[in-house]
Amino acid sequence: MTLAKPIDVPTQATRLDAIEGRYDRWLLGAVLSLVVFGIVMVTSASLGLADVMGVGEFYFVQRHLFALALGGALAWVAMNLELKTVERYQGLALLACFVALLLVFIPGFGVRVNGAKRWLNFVVLNFQAVEAVKLLMIIWMASYLARRRDELAQSWVAILKPFLVVGGLVILLLAQPDFGSSALLMAITAGMVFLGGASLARFFTPVLIGGIGFVGIAVLEPYRLARITSFREPFEDPFGGGYQLVQALIAIGRGGFDGVGLGASVQKLQAFPEVHTDFIFSVLAEELGFLGVCAVLALYAVLLWRAFSVGLRCMALRRQFAGLVAFGVGLSIGIQATVSIGVNLGLLPTKGLTLPLISSGGSSVMMTCAMLGVLLRVSYELDRSERQVQRARGELRGIDEPGDTVLPAALVAAQAVAARAKPEPMTAARGSSRIETARIEPTLGGPR
């Protein structure tokens, strides 16, 4: 391959600092599609429950739309916030995790619902503290792993520290009690540490110890043991501990291939608990059938594919913090969706985890939107960096030279760094001045 003569920076049609990014369209499309699915299914699933409770028939969907509006505002803020600014406050993010989980135990701040103290009183709504903790913990974890990436393969301390920190959060969650969210936080931590480059030999030790500990906690607590027992044989106690799962399985069975029709679910009229939240997947399967289930699973697959694809491309460009944030958000949504669907299918014991973007919920919907806003921001900055790197490659090699080929991302990045470090050979002959850089604010839908 013949290298072209270096060209002048002033002759470029677009300056490097004027290049904007674009949000990942596949990711944005999957998110919006799941939101629409959620609105439709919350409306359908909650009608029977609203009638039993004596509230307006659209009471629950109105609350869901209100949470989506607040979540959309949080997502918009996240989509317009530079990741370097987010990373700068990673220490405060970790502190906020502990403060939020401690506030639920303070009278006046904490609210007890169904025997658990998990909610904070914000007057207009009760906010579940752990939903914010998920995002804040991912931000701190991504920053820590990016800073210690060279130590993860060699140091026990570097690997154990995130598990110990999250262990402190888990203790506070178990005191509420919230076993499902505790297990989710530990699973996200394990996944991020592994993807961050931890040594396998050292990685599996804390994971094995943590797994044994969670099994012990589940078995020793009577009501958790009862859930496991009813999960294994729900039809032995169809009107007691196995009631929810039995109703969910009957609903899924009635759905068949193409469903009984939107709004025609019979099981939702039985008003079994959490039909519009934890067990909304069973109503979806009954009304939309196997085809509807496949459509929803495909949308989650696209969302996770784009999340991990964005993360891998960030890592290739040595943007470790951004890449690990993308991994963390993907793990959080993927694990939660898997557990929620598994519970509805009788594959996992009952846990209080909603189906992201589809289940009704206040704080869970809001913070899921905020998470996805951060992920979209990662995709924006990645696209911007890749465009700038390609432009820098053009400055080094000539953008119209016949026979040019696209170089690997890592080599392209190295060339771009070299070009910025030694600009004199490119511009000294013509006496061009140094390029000023300026922050470009993104707009939804990319550059105009």
Main traits of this protein?
mainly alpha, 3 strands, disordered N terminus
Describe the structure.
The protein has 448 residues and is mostly helical. It has one domain (25-384). It has 16 helices and three strands. The protein has helices spanning 25-45, 47-53, 59-79, 83-88, 90-103, 129-147, 156-174, 179-195, 200-220, 222-232, 243-255, 280-316, 320-344, 363-397, 409-421, 424-427, and strands at residues 110-113, 116-121, 126-128. Strands 1-2-3 form a three-stranded antiparallel sheet. β1 (110-113) and β2 (116-121) form a beta hairpin. α6 (129-147) runs parallel beside α8 (179-195). The chain is globular and about 65 Å long. The two termini are 35 Å apart. 44% of the residues are buried.
Give a nutshell description of this structure.
The chain is mostly helical and 448 residues long. The chain has helices at 25-45, 47-53, 59-79, 83-88, 90-103, 129-147, 156-174, 179-195, 200-220, 222-232, 243-255, 280-316, 320-344, 363-397, 409-421, 424-427; strands at 110-113, 116-121, 126-128. It is 63% helix and 3% strand.
